[in-house]
Design a protein that fits this description.
This protein starts with 12 loop residues before the first strand and ends with a strand. The protein has 2 domains: 13-51 and 121-330, Purple Acid Phosphatase, chain A, domain 2 (4-Layer Sandwich), CATH 3.60.21.10; 54-114, Nucleotidyltransferase, domain 5, CATH 3.30.420. The protein is of the alpha/beta class. The chain has helices at 25-37, 79-92, 101-108, 111-137, 154-157, 203-214, 266-275, and strands at 13-18, 42-45, 54-61, 64-69, 72-76, 95-100, 143-146, 168-170, 175-177, 182-187, 222-227, 238-240, 242-243, 250-251, 253-254, 257-258, 260-262, 279-281, 290-294, 297-301, 312-319, 322-330. Strands 8-7-2-1-21-22 form a 6-stranded mixed sheet. Strands 9-10-11-18-20-19 form a 6-stranded mixed sheet, covered by helices on one side. It has a 4-stranded mixed sheet with strand order 5-4-3-6.
Length: 331
């Protein structure tokens, strides 16, 4: 039997970290299975758990249905094909609802109805994911720690705060114990982006938010920062620079090549340099898989390929306030 939160020598505590699943059913299932596959003691989800949109599946009569997926209209005729379409939509990270043509038109033309439906479906999936975590992890000693990110609505993430879960632990904006030696604090907010996502904050406000949650760290513990935003200019935040004045934002190009820059947070970097946690867990910039040290702090961003059903992660062994080893994973 494997003991959660073992002390001292040996392997210590093994953490499997992943982020930015963006509603993908397949990727979430892989994340929960990673505990057994990698022999991990703790699963940590770094944010952006919600999908981005609802795809209507429209009834056309005689058992026929259609849906527009990635700009292409798909037609299906049997109930098995409809079920397969729903699974495809869920694995891509989208939500789905099955409606008649008149229902579709009524919802489409009512922005408030669209928003209500989106929140309802996103909350429903998150609740189901939490129940799945409870079922899959029951009796294993493995716990799943989850925070949201900048794309996640606070009203949906409120579904994570439950008193009846054993294996699933909500950790947004708070300090939680990973084991008897290590404390993790989580921050869903990021610095401003051109996409104007739900949870962004100017750097001074983000610094205040970080200081409030970091103040919960007792001095004698070894800290982990689970901050969705990566530190600025750390190689964990390298991406194409965008022109914020266009709609949608366009890539900035020089000599025929995209201009790359560090899109991370100055406040996050300053907090890491100030507090020097043992470990920084980050995401947000999907294409910037990297690991880097800022002083004593090992910072990792495993990247994300949720749309392809690939789970990118990082397996990290910690012992008595030190990162003994880490390995990027994909599968």
């Amino acid at each position: 039997m494997r003991f959660f939160g073992r002390k001292g020598g040996g392997r210590g505590t093994r953490i499997f970290y992943a982020t930015d699943v963006h509603g993908s059913e397949r990727t979430w299932r892989k994340f929960l299975n990673a505990g057994r596959f990698y022999d991990a003691d703790a699963l940590v989800m770094g944010g952006d758990v919600m999908g981005k949109l609802v795809i209507p599946i429209i009834r056309e009569g005689d058992g026929r249905h259609r849906a527009t997926i990635h700009g292409r209209v798909e037609h299906v005729e049997t109930s098995a094909e409809v079920d397969a379409m729903r699974q495809t939509i869920g694995d891509l990270g989208f939500y789905h609802t099955t409606v008649d043509e008149d229902e579709y038109l009524a919802i489409r033309d009512d922005p408030a109805a669209v928003e209500r439906l989106f929140v309802e479906l996103a909350t429903e999936r998150l609740v189901r994911w939490i129940e799945l975590a409870e079922t899959k992890l029951a009796g294993t000693g493995v716990r799943c720690y989850a925070t949201g990110g900048n794309d996640d609505l606070t009203e949906v993430m409120a579904a994570m705060d439950r008193a009846d879960t054993v294996s699933f632990v909500a950790c947004e904006d708070r300090a939680v114990a990973i084991d008897d030696r290590h404390i993790m604090v989580s921050m869903p907010y990021v610095n401003p982006t051109p996409w104007q996502t739900p949870r962004e904050a100017a750097e001074p406000e983000l610094a205040e938010r970080i200081d409030r949650v970091a103040a919960d760290l007792p001095g004698e513990t070894h800290a982990i920062f689970n901050f969705h935003a990566p530190p600025r200019d750390s190689t964990l935040d390298t991406c194409a620079q965008l022109d914020w004045t266009t709609d949608p934002p366009a890539q900035i190009v020089s000599s025929g090549q995209p201009v790359m820059y560090g899109a991370g947070s100055e406040a996050v970097r300053a907090a890491i340099e100030r507090y020097q946690p043992m470990l920084g867990l980050h995401g947000h910039i999907h294409e910037s898989q990297a690991a880097a040290r800022l002083g004593r702090t090992l910072c990792v961003n495993p990247g994300s390929e949720y749309g392809e059903g690939i789970l990118r992660g990082c397996l990290i062994n910690v012992v008595d306030g030190q990162v003994k080893s880490y390995q990027m994973t994909a599968g």
